[in-house]
Amino acid sequence: MMWKDKYKVGVELIDEQHKELFKRLSEFIQIVQSKSDWDERLDKVKETMEFMQEYVVFHFNDEEEYQKKINYPDIEIHKEAHRKFKEGINDYVRIFEQGGFTEEKIQEFSAKLMTWLIMHVGKMDQKIGEYVREKGGQE
User: Fold this and answer.
1) What are phi and psi of 34, to 5 degrees?
2) Angle at the Cα of 20 (from 18 to 76), degrees rounded to 5?
3) How many whole angstroms separate alpha carbon 113 and alpha carbon 29?
């Protein structure tokens, strides 16, 4: 899962954070799909889970602050999408804590992360860039 220039929003901070998310998720998917021993992969899986929990909150806060700064009209819709995503990650964290890190559940989680990231960055976040361009490129 590679970063593509078509995902650029045109706001350097947001684009750099998105690139990092894509990079980490790509590494995560490679680990999950690797044929090496599951126990050997588990530490990296747990590390990625922690990263996603922390970095996503950090990124969402920055993205929402930027939206406030530019008076982005759809900020509430965007915040709701962020809230649901954080809730989804936390649901998986609970599943893993209660039932263990099964390979099947981790694969399901990685697929959901990938789908969400492509949909959110590729569609919803693009609207931020369009709004900025319409307003004359203010950052």
Assistant:
1) -60, 150
2) 30
3) 10
| pLDDT of 137 | 63
Determine whether 25 is exposed, middle or buried from the number of CB atoms within 10 Å of its CB (0-12, 13-18, 19+).
Answer: buried
Q: What is the pLDDT of residues 20-43, one digit of tens each?
A: 999 988 988 888 888 888 788 888
Burial of 27 (0-12, 13-18, 19+ CB in 10 A): middle
> Length of the chain in residues, anyone?
139
User: Which of 19, 17, 47 is closest to 32 using CA atoms?
Assistant: 47
**Which residue in 99, 39, 52 sits closest to 31, CA to CA?**
39
3-class secondary structure, 70: coil
CA angle (23 as vertex; 18, 29 as ends), nearest 5: 120
The single residue listed with the structure tokens 């954080």 is 86
- Dihedral angle at the C-alpha atoms of 40, 44, 47, 52, nearest 10 degrees? -140
